[in-house]
Write a structure and sequence with these properties.
The complex is a heterotrimer of chains A (365), B (509) and C (332). Chain A has 365 residues and is mostly helical. Chain A has 13 helices and two strands. Chain A has a domain of 229 residues. Chain A has a two-stranded antiparallel sheet. Helices cover 33% and strands 26% of the residues of chain B. The two termini of chain B are 42 Å apart. Chain C has 332 residues and is mostly helical. Chain C has a domain of 225 residues. The radius of gyration of chain C is 20 Å and the shape is globular. The termini of chain C are far apart. Classes of the chains: A mainly alpha (365), B alpha/beta (509), C mainly alpha (332). Chains in contact: A-B, A-C, B-C. Chains B and C meet through loops of B and helix 8 and helix 9 of C.
Chain lengths: 365, 509, 332
């Protein structure tokens, strides 16, 4: 430690804290974030803060349709976040969720378009299989190179996103409908081939149920299966993994197959379940937002439900503010960003504390 | 003899880590134009003492004088300003940079690689180093990296050089070269300290020896006029009675037969050379040796974690069936039905997963059992509870991550798990390192229980007193070769100490 | 044929310059061990802040003819630099001081930055009262687009080499200077040491956090200029939401493609720019679908480079060794 530049604060790692400590810190960050967002909104709109916050709540709970949209968006975001989580637990930075979901979406749409004369009984199983395979393939390619040659997975998966985006853009033109629009438009609008059935009178309900099942399955897989255990060991220490005879390369590839497959499923749900179309923007950046959902939820599927609801709720609320007060829709992204910065910054105070360095203490150690 | 100038004086230096006293009121003088060997067993506080000179640690008590001026050394930079440079065992080099770039790293002023290269060349010529300033560090051998570290220190104008076990990673030829250079530097008036526990290096190189034992300064004397025997006596002291039980071996039969085992590290350094021995069931085979003599490689080779150049490792069943273990990984060894347990040196980095709780750590060995895709959570919990109870592990709960436990409790968890699988062979590396007396005795008792159950125990240790009281036979390794195998009962500490430092020792075993 | 090449090269360069700014900035950042995935956001912020500056300046003028070319360039540039500097400080504060995960922070910054750009862009469009969904700042843009007066009198040479605006030359100059500083100066040496092995750098007396802050903030400011160039020069002062597209990610791809060498980035960015518009010069390229596949090329090429460099495993052709990892001295 240098005598001449003694810092004012000394950063100390916290010892074991009770479980509620972390959550209260997170709650405080969210409250601060909301206060900050409120302030920004007041400055921009000069409305009164109470109205602003009631508008945010309105965005998700204003009507039953808005509520269903909240659930649907949460489900899709959560689904991709769930997909990324096994990879993250293994310390494999898969930021290619966007591309893997797109690959799945492309496969679903391809089935719908190419098999438009087949019965749903044939088409839908084909969609399920191909989209899951496509996602898995998209995830396994970087995993293979990581396992064999140590290729940097963050950059690789990132690049794979844009390869997928461009391939989808290509097919958007190839399958454009009507001609010259450059868009696919709604696929099979009359025959509804490949459209998932509506249940409970909503096209969202099936998606939500499927994602709920995936959440439970992923929770069980990560916490109770042998695979999940191997993932945790590899993530914590590759040396320990080898010591007890785990084949690390195999685990990396297998985990990314699963990660990609679940992303592919998300793509399937987007195409078959709700949008019934395909475009390069169909995943809408969820592949990236999901990284934050998973990380903020501490890679725990149950907590991730809360983080994904929170993010979608804020996004919808911010969107509502934007429309109600005549702002442009991107205002929501700004608020989401601000809130994320607060939560990300807040994590520091869970793990560390600042203690004043006393000059009276003779030595720094 | 001309009057010597003490350039460094350390007075009453005390340093404690928690409850462990690493250095206890140490006095040490370092003279110009002299090579001082700082001798002592592992854990005698040699490195800690020198780290306080080089600014890594700050002493709790005591004073340091340089050229009779009291100084305060708070950082490596302070040390450099006082002309002190230390070459650590773990080199601090940036791999993708060249030698010259590494040497000038952190200095101020305009970057002039040409001038730096010129200066490096001058230093090299003056002392006989061979360094290519433009070679990248990743292309270098270990000895070349070490040379870069030494040149780095000299480049900054150090007059006092400290080398922490510099020969541990070198071949004999490289060692000779290093010694020649060190002598040149001494003749140039520099003060040189080498930390070592190799007796022949002391004899070959040093002008004076200072000896530490258990953190205390035992004494110093000119190398000329002393001999290895006297130094060993001072270094190991007299045998301490630890009262470790040593039951007689039960029905010993050959269990592991190692023949002509030769292992090379990835850098191509010979780690084990033609090692042969037999470990018997119902017996504790101790492995003695200074650290880095090949103990780690030996155990990891048996456990299937270390690629082997040649030789064989046979597992012998009670009925005489033999299985070759070489070329098998830990999983296939286990699948063969060979129950082999291994308590590695690096407990939290290899033996356990620090972030996981006790019961999850218990699962490391057993999670594959059964056909179910799900892990069995109940039996590890039961086992964790049992280990906590039987071994008296102090933990808030079995849901506590093991990282948060103290060293002794971590080791109890690890040993508890490894013996829970009722092994036929138990390999332990430095099983009591960093443990207090009580925990150490718990571990000895556990090992003895295993022995009485007929397990073949291989115990790698660093404390000779313990090895002599615990083990039935002691294999002494010296620089990767078997220096001798002696019976534990009746062996003399000094003899074993001699065998550790030179092949075969003085004894005629 | 010659004519096609003559029109191709300037267009490839125009496409490449924003990528060059972004890549140079990101290389400097990554050399310090910080992986800033917020670069796309930073470039948006750099662009929109320039637009805000230009908008305010143009509004303050009595008439477009009264524009002072020096101020018209200086004000937006200053706004742009300040905006992207703040983004850099934010990233450093979160990842270096508060030790947050770099990937998560970077992605959040991209969300924020793109939103910030589109929000203010959209709001300015509304404020300007235009009935089109974009904002045109042609007066300012004309100042940015000034080329050397004699360039078009020198024929082909003039067109290909001298016919660009100052931001193009600035991008090349910054990239070359960055390469020089990184490879040939003490600051660069220390920076590389920090990104490779912060522990060693720290023990050599280098202030690791200071280097990380400095490199990341400078990198963001350079990247921000890419956004500024895009609106003011390439897009002729017209801001339309999302028009900048995914060029930020392409800049990150360029970092890998050049194997962390800004001087190589000069030509590589023009190559990427060329690949981006190649479809217009290929007979089948009029097919809109194929155009999209051509746009994929830079990413595919980057992946190939990434794989080959890990296959060959040459130590000096790898990402900085501690890229993306936080550094705390106590964890040593």
């Amino acid at each position: 430690m240098n005598k001449t530049r003694e810092p004012l604060f000394h950063i100390v790692k916290r010892g074991e804290m009770p479980w509620y400590f972390g959550w209260s810190v997170r709650a405080v960050s969210i409250v601060l974030a909301l206060a900050c967002c409120g302030l920004i909104t007041v400055l921009v709109t000069s409305e009164n803060p109470i109205k602003i916050f009631s508008t945010i709540i309105d965005g998700s709970f204003g009507s039953s349709r808005k509520f269903m949209v909240l659930l649907q968006n949460t489900a899709m975001l959560l689904c991709i976040a769930l997909a990324l989580t096994p990879a993250f637990k293994m310390r494999f930075w898969n930021i290619g969720g966007e591309g893997q979901a797109l690959a799945g979406a492309l496969a679903s749409a391809a089935c719908m378009i190419l098999m438009k004369d087949q019965p749903n009984l044939v088409v839908i199983p084909c969609m399920v299989v191909t989209s899951i395979l496509a996602g898995a393939l998209w995830g396994a390619v970087p995993a293979f190179f990581k396992a064999r040659f140590g290729t940097n997975e963050t950059l690789f998966t990132l690049m794979m996103n844009y390869v997928a985006t461009q391939i989808v853009a290509y097919f958007s033109v190839v399958w454009e409908n009507p001609k010259g629009s450059g868009n696919i438009g709604v696929i099979n609008p009359l025959s509804k081939v490949g459209w998932f059935p509506e249940i409970f009178g909503s096209k969202y309900a099936l998606n939500i149920i499927i994602v709920a099942l995936v959440t439970v399955a992923m929770y069980i897989y990560l916490n109770y299966s042998k695979h999940g255990y191997e993932i945790s060991v590899v993530g914590e220490s590759e040396r320990t993994a080898r010591y007890i005879g785990i084949k690390v390369e195999k685990v990396i590839i297998r985990t990314m197959l699963i990660s990609g497959a679940v992303c592919g499923l998300a793509g399937l749900l987007l195409v078959g379940g709700t949008n019934h179309t395909l475009n390069a923007d169909i995943v809408a950046g969820r592949g990236f937002t999901a990284v934050m959902v998973s990380w903020l939820g501490k890679f725990n599927p149950v907590w991730m439900i809360f983080t994904s609801v929170l993010l979608v709720f804020l996004e919808r609320g911010a969107g509502e503010i934007a429309t109600d007060f005549g702002l442009n829709a991107s205002f929501g992204d700004i608020l989401t960003g601000v809130i994320l910065f607060f939560i990300i910054g807040g994590e520091f105070f869970i793990n560390y504390k600042l203690s004043l360095t006393k000059a009276a203490k003779k030595e720094g150690k | 003899m001309e009057k010597k100038i003490a350039t460094v004086k350390m007075r009453n230096i005390t340093k404690t880590f928690g409850t462990v006293v690493a250095n206890d009121k140490v006095w040490l003088d370092i003279y110009k134009g002299e090579i001082l060997a700082l001798l002592g067993e592992n854990g005698s506080g040699k490195t800690t003492l020198m780290n306080m000179l080089s600014g890594i640690y700050f002493p709790d008590e005591g004073d340091i004088f340089i050229n009779d001026e009291k100084v305060v050394i708070r950082s490596p930079k302070d040390a450099f300003d006082h002309g002190i440079g230390m070459i650590h065992q773990h080199f601090k080099l940036v791999d993708v940079l060249t030698a010259a770039e590494n040497i000038i790293l952190g200095l101020e002023g305009k970057l002039d690689l040409k001038a730096a290269t010129e200066k490096i060349r001058r230093i090299c010529e003056a002392y006989g180093f061979e360094v290519d300033p433009n070679q990248k560090v990743y292309d270098m051998s270990v000895s070349q990296k070490q040379t870069v570290e030494i040149v780095k220190v000299l480049f900054r104008g150090a007059d006092i050089l400290i080398l922490d076990e510099p020969t541990a990673v070198l071949t004999p030829q490289e060692t000779d070269k290093l010694f020649a250079v060190l002598r040149n530097m001494r003749n140039d008036g520099k003060a040189i300290v080498i930390i070592t526990h190799k007796m022949h290096e002391v004899e070959k190189l040093s002008d004076r020896v200072a000896i530490l034992r258990h953190g205390q300064f035992v004494g110093d004397l000119p190398t000329e006029g002393t001999d290895a025997q006297e130094l060993t006596n001072m270094m190991v002291g007299y045998s301490v009675n630890l009262n470790i039980a040593r039951p007689d071996p039960v029905d010993p039969k050959p269990r592991i037969e190692v023949n002509g085992l030769t292992v090379r590290s990835i850098d191509g350094v010979l780690k084990l050379q033609d090692v042969s021995f037999t470990a018997m069931s119902g017996e504790i085979l101790g492995i003695a040796g200074i650290s880095g003599s090949g103990q780690k490689e030996l155990l990891e080779a048996i456990a299937g974690l270390q690629p082997v150049e040649s030789g064989s490792i046979c597992y012998v069943e009670d009925d005489g069936t033999r299985d070759e273990l070489l070329g098998k990984d830990p999983l296939s060894i286990a699948e063969k039905g060979i129950s082999l347990s291994f308590v590695p040196e690096d407990r939290l980095g290899m033996g356990l997963v620090g972030g996981m709780d006790l019961s999850d750590n218990m699962m490391l060995r057993s999670f594959r059992k059964g056909r179910s895709v799900f892990t069995d959570r109940k039996s590890p919990r039961r086992l964790a509870k049992q280990v906590v109870e039987e071994l008296n592990v102090k933990t808030p709960s079995i849901e506590t991550p093991v990282r948060k436990l103290s060293g002794g409790n971590v080791q109890k968890v690890l040993v508890g798990r490894e013996i829970a699988s009722a092994p036929k062979v138990l390999l332990t590396a430095y099983a009591v390192r960093g443990l207090d007396i009580n925990s150490s005795h718990t571990i000895y008792d556990l090992i003895n229980q295993q022995k009485q159950k007929g397990v073949a125990v291989v115990y790698v240790g660093e404390d000779l007193d313990v090895l002599l009281e615990l083990c039935d036979r002691i294999l002494v390794l010296c620089a990767g070769k078997v220096s001798g195998i002696v019976p534990g009962r009746g062996a003399k500490k000094r003899d074993v100490g001699m065998m550790m430092t030179r092949l075969g020792g003085n004894s005629n075993e | 044929m010659l004519e096609a090449i003559l029109s191709f090269i300037p267009r490839a360069i125009a496409q490449g310059v924003p990528l060059l700014y972004g890549a140079t900035g990101e290389i400097i950042t990554q050399k310090s061990g910080n992986m800033n995935l917020g670069i796309p956001g930073v470039m948006y912020v750099g662009g929109i802040c320039g637009v805000i500056g230009a908008f305010l300046y143009e509004q303050s003028l009595p008439s477009p003819e009264a524009i002072n070319p020096v101020l018209a360039v200086l004000i937006p540039t200053l706004f742009s630099l300040i905006g992207s500097l703040l983004m850099g400080l934010l990233f450093c504060f979160l990842t270096v001081t508060l030790r947050a995960n770099q990937n998560v922070t970077g992605l959040a910054m991209t969300t924020f930055g793109v939103g910030f750009g589109n929000f203010f862009g959209g709001s300015l469009v509304k404020l300007s009262g235009a009935d089109m969904p974009f904002l045109a700042l042609s007066a300012t843009s004309n100042c940015f687009k000034k080329t050397l007066p004699f360039a078009d009198k020198l024929g082909v040479f003039g067109d290909l080499v001298l016919g660009y605006s100052f931001l193009v030359y600035l991008a090349i100059a910054i990239a070359l200077i960055a390469a020089f500083v990184i490879n040939r100066t003490r600051t660069g040496l220390h920076l590389r040491a920090v990104g490779e092995n912060p522990g060693t750098a720290d023990s050599a007396g280098i202030n690791v956090n200071r280097y990380k802050y400095f490199a990341t903030c400078l990198g963001c400011m350079i990247a921000g200029l890419g956004g500024l160039y895009y609106v003011m020069d390439y897009a002729s002062g017209i801001w339309a939401n999302n028009a900048f597209g995914d060029r930020g990610w392409l800049a990150i791809a360029l970092v890998i493609f050049t194997i962390w060498r800004p001087n190589v980035g000069v030509l590589a960015s023009f190559l990427f720019g060329g690949l981006y518009i190649l479809h217009m010069y290929i007979p089948s390229g009029m097919n809109l679908a194929v155009k999209e596949l051509y746009k994929m090329l830079p990413y595919v090429v980057t992946i190939v480079v990434l794989i080959i460099s890990s296959l060959r495993n040459q130590r000096d052709k790898q990402p900085p060794q501690s890229l993306g990892l936080p550094y705390f001295r106590e964890d040593r």
